């Protein structure tokens, strides 16, 4: 890949439902309380997490490659790889991937799932404390994980570990509704307050909106606004199931029972 010291790293955002746009955070966002503790609960149930979390369609990675120039020559850093759902797709592109995952059990499952690939290394650490050993990357990918990173550390560090013409891509799934259905979040707002009072994530705009501020340190924002993959329609029981496990956003089965009653 051609590199130029005069070109600043760029950011794009990619979602399994929508290709979004992000920009470097220049304000001083407050650290969300208990961020690390809330994220660790998934490490207790890696198999359940892997079963319930939606994956990412191939079309998404095709577009990611078209936007960023990602190919077999690329060196990719994945932040918060979880059980390796996006990691496997990145590896299939032939690029070299260093995946960072703070959960020991999650990282172990990811290593088992990607054992067939020789171009991936999984390192157990938070992104904030990770030792990059001077390595630099063409693309940084965070699949449904960037919200766990302390923004006051994460954004500057992302800029630091990318080559000058590198890209940062944020992947995620979004909840959509069909015409005529009640807005799920509006209908369940009181449950969020009951089971996770004071959760700073609730009622806030999506991450891509929060980080649109200035272009300091970053190049142009890519905002294609595309949709990927089929819409997944779940029954009430299936939709609530992920919330029945330990979750950073809810208090166990009581949440699931009440949520089921509302929707």
Automatic annotation (TrEMBL):
Pfam families: Methyltransf_25. GO terms for molecular function: methyltransferase activity. Keywords: Methyltransferase, Transferase. It comes from the Bacteria. SUPFAM superfamilies: S-adenosyl-L-methionine-dependent methyltransferases. Residues 76-166 form the Methyltransferase domain. CDD domains: AdoMet_MTases (cd02440). The keyword Transferase applies. This is Methyltransferase domain-containing protein. One of its GO terms (biological process) is methylation.
